Amino acid sequence: MTTIIELSYILAASLFIIGLKYMSAPASARRGNLIGAIGMLLAIVVTLLDRQIVSFTWIIVGMVIGSAAGWASARYVKMTAMPQMVGLLNGFGGGASALVAVAEFLKLAKNPPLPMDSSITIILGVFIGGITLTGSFMAYAKLEGLVSGSPITFPLQKPLNAILILTILALSVYLVGWTPNMLFFWIIVAISLIYGVLFVLPIGGADMPVVISLLNSFSGLAACAAGFVVENNVLIVSGSLVGAAGLILTQIMCKAMNRSLTNVLFSAFGTGDSAAGAAGSTSDKTVRSVDSEEAAMVIGYAQTVIIVPGYGMAAAQAQHAVRELTELLQGRGVEVKFAIHPVAGRMPGHMNVLLAEANVPYTLLHDMDDINPEFPHTDVVLVIGANDVVNPAARNDKSSPIYGMPILDVDKARNVIMMKRSLNPGFAGIENELFYNPKTLMYFGSAKEKVQELVAQVKKL
Amino acid sequence: MPEGLLIGIEVFVLAMFVGFEVITKVPPTLHTPLMSGANAISGIAIIGALLVAGGKNDLVDTILGVIAVIFAMINVVGGFMVTDRMLQMFKKKPTEK
């Protein structure tokens, strides 16, 4: 029996790898996800056959409740709320791993002393899992708007964090080297949970793609740690796969913002001093603003149009109106493409999901590196609710805090229509010289209404 | 170093490499589904949770285990389902309504 279980676990782990492999192309991705789900089902079924399991009542209760909650949230969540959803799911995964580690400690602590490797892996499991749990819920609260999305800082924040980490280290050394001490163990649990909140608190809204990716990685590493705790290789394999996936995404996101991970985590970007850089005198610059009719003329008589969506499109739920505009323009013979910056939105790939929901074919969506060479021979770029990712200061103003960040070169196109609520600088508080570029037409208003007006006007042409 | 731990570390390191190899190739368009799909896989902690919840333990362990089972199942079911919901929207050509 044990052999069958072990072999099934290897099969499940292989299915996860194959599933992830299939995820690398849109056409096969859905099958890949299904293969992963089959692997999971297999792993669960054979675990239930394990002789260690003596009672099924509570297992069934837990599984029914968890499945129902998971099913309902997956079924009814709005696509715009996907970052929050993924945040929550990360948290639950991390929480489950932490609980497994805690339960194992309670069991082992009855017969001291604990083997050293068990104590180390249990503490790691509790720490990573705990941070993932509360950190993800904090990220959820920020994304959902329950807590301010901007960086939250308070005096002595960094010293406090340092003290917490040192305390954990000291207590861990004691627990590993000496005898199990219940009080110390619970303090470690508590600090891990508190630290999760504190670590997400100073990170701002536009940095959320990094945080979500990192927490995604943590949820995998937590499962991995739980795998070490219960000495189960399928947990270790699956956990590392997820850990690696999250790390890769984190790295891509950091690169797309030209910032190091430490800078994202510890600098509370956009809270003041860091944003002062480029906010020089702008009062003497002029802005050309247009109404819907003019904007429709510019865009309707163009041959090539590139649409650059940003968080503003998601916030205003304008993706369906954008699709309507796209089809209308295509009907007029205009070539329409979308340029997606890697950190547009609040999570990696956020814009792609929203546009897919609105029925925009993914073949129209282009990554930054592919589309940048096309801007110089593009008639009109329509920027909808994006700002920092199209700010030329990143390319040519060394004093700007975003200098060096890869951007979409929209200023190289013949005309730019910036759809924005106001001239306010974006999240990072950085002045955008693109607004004052003679090629730029500012089209003020809320993204959804303005795109709808544009649709109506283009129809009249 | 205990043998179990050693094998565990071995598996961990190799699996990380496999993970990096497989996932580097995922295009940016699929980053969100990749994340939620990978996230569902991290719900594999369900196995540990099941062993705790159903094992011969005292009440506290069982309660912790059941909560862990609930958390992990939300992660697994929610993760795979929401990924599927997203992926079925990704289309090459616009569909007629």
Description of the structure:
The complex is a heterodimer of chains A (461) and B (97). With 461 residues, chain A is an alpha/beta fold. Chain A folds into 3 domains: 1-76; 88-274, no CATH class; 292-460, Rossmann fold (3-Layer(aba) Sandwich). Chain A has helices spanning 2-22, 26-48, 57-76, 82-108, 116-144, 157-177, 182-200, 208-229, 233-256, 261-266, 292-300, 311-315, 319-331, 350-357, 368-371, 393-396, 447-460; strands spanning 304-309, 335-340, 365-367, 380-384, 415-420, 440-444. A 6-stranded parallel β-sheet of chain A has the order 3-2-1-4-5-6. In chain A, strand 2 (335-340), helix 14 and strand 3 form a beta-alpha-beta unit. In chain A, helix 5 packs antiparallel against helix 8 and helix 6 runs antiparallel to helix 7 (182-200). Chain A is elongated and about 80 Å long. Residues 270-281 of chain A have low confidence and may be disordered. Chain B has helices at 3-23, 31-41, 46-54, 59-87. With 97 residues, chain B is mainly alpha-helical. Chains A and B meet through helix 1, helix 2, helix 3, helix 4 and helix 8 of A and helix 1, helix 2, helix 3 and helix 4 of B.
